[in-house]
Amino acid sequence: MQNAFLVLSSSSIIKMFMRIKPAIILLLLTFNFSLLHSQTPATYSSADIYMQLKKLNVLGSVLYIAAHPDDENTRLLAYLSKEKQYRTGYMSLTRGDGGQNLIGDEQGIELGLIRTQELLSARRIDGAEQFFSRAYDFGFSKTAAEALKIWGHDKILSDVVWMIRKFQPDVIITRFPGDARAGHGHHWASNLLANEAFKIAGDSTKFPEQFQYGVKPWQAKRILWNTFNFGGTNTTSNDQFKFDVGTFNPLLGKGYGEIASESRSQHKSQGFGIPRQRGQAYEYFTTTGGDAPKDNLMDGITTNWDRVDGGAAIEQEVNDIIAHFNFEHPENSVDALTQLYQAIDKLADSYWKNKKLDEVKQLIVECSGLFAEATTNTEYVVTGDSIRINFFINKGNNTNIKLESVQLDGIDSTLNVSLPYDQNISFNKIFAIPVNAPITQPYWLEKPLDNGGSFDVDDQRLIGTPQNPAAYSAIFNLNINGVKLSVSKPVQYKYTDPVKGELYQPIAIIPPVIVSVSPNVVLTNIKPGNEHSANPFATVKYKTNFTAKQAPVTIKIMQGTSAVYSKDTVVDAEAGKEFVMSVPVKKVFNNNIANDVLSAEVTVTQRGNIFTYSQLLRSIQYDHIPHINYFYHDNIRVVNDEIKTGSKKVGYIMGVGDKVPADLVQMGYDIKLLGAADITDENLKQFDAIVTGVRAYDVDQFLNDKYDILMRYVNNGGNLVVQYNRSNLISSGKIKVGPYPFAITGTRVTDESADVHVLLPNSPALNYPNKIMPTDFEGWVQERSIYQADHPDAHYEAPIGMHDPNEAESTGSLIIAKYGKGNFVYTGIVFFRELPAGVSGAYKLMANLIALPLNK
Questions:
Q1: 86-99 pLDDT per residue, tens
Q2: Distance of CA 409 to the CA centre of its chain
Q3: Do 550 and 595 form a contact (C-beta atoms < 8 A)?
Q4: Calpha distance 460→464 (Å, rounded)
Q5: Which residues is 64 bridged to in the sheet?
Q6: CA-based Rg of the chain, rounded to a whole angstrom?
Q7: Which pLDDT tens digit goes with each residue over 105-122?
Q8: d(Cα 824, Cα 817) in Å, to the nearest integer?
């Protein structure tokens, strides 16, 4: 993973579209519905083609609906998509923004971006399609009422109705029940919304504004709840409708349990890698709307060509193609497929006509053995610049294909050239990027969150789609046996890694200047503090993605909408050059402005024109998903509240997705990161306190092995502060954490404004060096506490209590035990969210835990 402050070099000036010899041809032949943005272009075996041929005779569809990435039943999706060959989709209401992150430090919308791509990776394996609503995963919710209130009931309901009308499922399936058994308010709400949408999607008086975009009322035949037996809850019973989804598919060489494990294991940020499962496996269902099935999921639904006027003849043609398919020579089917395409094209317009035309197009391409691509040698393209696009094509099978023309964003070239057999053909050209080209930004992030509960998307046509279209696509108009096919391929960045081999990534359009500020939080009133905390600096960095001598530049530091600092300068800009400027925060921050956030603007004069830039490019990179790029306005949150610190030297053991050490540095602590080799009796003597990051015990087995050393450290007078873990969800064996026993449960307080009750007013944790007041629990974000302690030994004290509405008081968010001369702390309080958010009360409480006094 890499956090990139990115710079691009400029390419040469635009050239005329080159003359192409008859033998030098381009073809890009992957359709938009194929593996867009996957890291390697898809290839298809004869077994794949044979399965797709059989799918031509299946005209049925299923839409599965749940709340989050990883909620979906991947085995069922794989079975429906690949065994039954229904058009299968999964609609996740959220992108999983509020989860935890096992593989990095991304949280919030960044985690949602990762989990979106993990879902798409999963769908590439199990064969289903992926959709989303505009709902934001704001964190754990205990009731559907809360979830629907925060999301906006009507807004998210309209999204579900939109997807039903657009996808036109015959059957809708929900993952969770519409009551508290769902275990999460989002889960619960997903069922309620799905069932409500099932009832009204066919009503033309409901959300009629959608019809202008080509959808029409649609009534699914039934909606089912896919009952489950997991997490200690069994909602299945033998009297429910059920069928076996554990079938082995000889064409794939795998059973659907194996495919499902591969699919589910793509949810790596959640630690959901699972073993392959084989053998019989039943799924159970309860009907919640429409006609209940008796013998088959599609009872009462026509799923063959009889549902289309004139379709009987089409089905016979498909059967004939299947019967004569030659696994060694799939190209022998191209003539029949082009005839089939023409026959389907003559049918009256309908949903299934268009879907089957797309499927036949794809089969013609695959049977022809065509491989083609349009690639660049750079991942990032600057507005107003140009890129060289490399085109490559190889027609692996001997079929009759003519490339009539190529279109690429305004370029339209008439070629009319027949493609040669099994010859590599390549050429390149320079393509201009307009000055006003939109920069790469996920469409749901173009506007701020709507009241923190949902994304604000203006374009109805984008709602539901998993990601943006490619920045640029080449469209190729082909003539195959007299059938004209228009196909497209996204322009991608292609490179070779010496370890990973050939890789592809989506290209990103970026501005000429990228701007960042740091640090994330500045604490201006630390007592006693150190040299750093006494005079914190705001640092502005900007990178130029263009080359110009003596370019006039103005750097402004903004506090809200007010410029509190401005500096004019002249720079020799170079592509990739970084400029840095630091200013004391106390010099620029204005206490009279009702805004505690600093940001930066950089104004550049280019060719007589003035441009202002203020956004940072964030690049998120992991091996299992395509690179993710998005822009945001970087800022510094300034905290002026007095925060007292007692101890000075702190050892920190990193957890999962941990940003806390940087915040402790802002508090003036001398922080040293500790690994397994550092945890020795002698080495730990130097530290006033040891802090472990979130879920550190879940993922670092060495902490188990170092238990005795850590306990001796506490006994000798040290403070050990353990942030939340998940009760041994990841690691093997029993974890040993505290000096006395306690349990870790899933209990949490999700209301970030829930009252916090002082149970032990004299506890040092609430008094030294900071007096913790009720106001210190104001302004918290997302939640109060997660994975709390339960059934603690009598040696533990719980200084505070809290609870969500209509629940009993919980005292497990913070437990403290004296042990020898020192203290042990376990806390589920979400410091990992509150400290990066600049919540002063969280800083004070953390300082108190680190400074717990020696026991005499």
A1: 999 999 999 999 98
A2: 29
A3: no
A4: 9
A5: 90, 173
A6: 30
A7: 898 999 999 999 999 999
A8: 5
User: Per the structure block, which two tokens stand in for 826?
Assistant: 């376990």
Cis ω for the linkage preceding 448 (within 30 of 0): no
How distant is the alpha carbon of residue 97 from its chain centre?
7
How far apart CA 225 and CA 235 sit, in angstroms, is: 10
Q: Average pLDDT for residues 707-716, to the nearest whole number?
A: 97
- Alpha carbon separation from 302 to 58, 171, 295, 524 (Å, rounded): 9, 12, 14, 69
Interatomic CA distance for residues 337 and 848, integer angstroms? 74
Taking the C-alpha atoms of 292, 297, 301 and 302 in order, what is their torsion angle to the nearest 10 degrees? -160
Q: What is the per-residue pLDDT across 647-678, written as a single tens digit (0 to 9) for each? A: 789 999 998 878 899 999 999 999 999 999 99
Would you state the structure tokens that stand for residue 416, as one six-digit string?
Answer: 């009319």
**Residue in the block written with tokens 């940072």:** 616
What is the per-residue pLDDT across 437-447, written as a single tens digit (0 to 9) for each?
999 999 999 99
Residues near 833 by Cβ (< 8 Å), separated by ≥ 6?
107, 781, 782, 783
Cβ distance 93 to 133 under 8 Å? yes
Give the mean pLDDT of 503-509. 95
The alpha carbon of 327 is separated from its chain's Cα centroid by a whole number of angstroms, namely 39
In this prediction, what percent of the chain has a pLDDT beyond 70? 95
Are 93 and 157 within 8 A, CB to CB? no
Which tokens sit at 486?
């228009």
User: In the sheet that 483-490 helps form, which strands lie side by side, from edge to edge?
Assistant: 411-418, 401-408, 473-480, 483-490
Evaluate if residue 42 carries a pLDDT over 70. yes
DSSP states along 520-583? SEEE--EES--HHHHS-EEEEEEEESS-EEEEEEEEEEEETTEEEEEEEEEEEE-TTEEEEEEE
Whether the model pTM is above 0.85:
yes
Choose the most confident range, by mean pLDDT, from 188-192, 570-574, 733-737.
188-192
C-alpha 839: how far from chain center: 26
CA 225 to mean position of chain CA atoms:
26
**From edge to edge, which strands make up the β-sheet containing 537-544?**
513-518, 537-544, 577-584
Indicate the helix (H) or strand (E) that contains 322.
helix 311-323
Cα separation, 826 vs 834, whole angstroms: 17
- Collect all residues with Cβ–Cβ distance below 8 Å to 761 and sequence separation of at least 6: none
How would residue 19 be classed by pLDDT, with cut points 50, 70 and 90? Answer: very low
Closest CA to 64 of 210, 167, 134: 167
Q: Provide the H-helix boundaries in 140-241.
A: 144-151, 153-167, 185-200
The closest alpha carbon to 161, from 107, 123, 217, belongs to 217
Q: State yes or no: pLDDT of 6 exceeds 70.
A: no
The mean predicted confidence, pLDDT, of the chain is 90
Cα separation, 784 vs 36, in Å, equals: 40
Structure tokens of 578?
A: 């970084």
Tokens of 126: 């199990």
Q: Is 800 helix (H, G, I), strand (E, B) or coil?
A: strand
Asked if 694 and 659 count as a contact pair (C-beta separation under 8 A), the reply is no
Instruction: Pick the more confident residue, 229 or 532.
Output: 229
614 pLDDT higher than 60: yes
Parallel, antiparallel or unpaired: strands 171-174 and 800-802: unpaired
121, 56, 619, 582: which is closest to 361 by C-alpha? Answer: 56
Return all residues near 21 (Cβ < 8 A) that are at least 6 apart: none
User: What is the tens place of the pLDDT at every residue in 464-502?
Assistant: 999 999 999 988 888 998 889 888 899 999 999 999 999
User: What gap in Å lies between CA 554 and CA 552, rounded to an integer?
Assistant: 7
The answer for residues whose C-beta is within 8 angstroms of residue 277's C-beta and 6 or more apart is 75, 246, 255, 257, 258, 260, 261
Give the DSSP letter string of 235-267: ---TTSEEEE---EETTTTEEHHHHHHHHHTT-
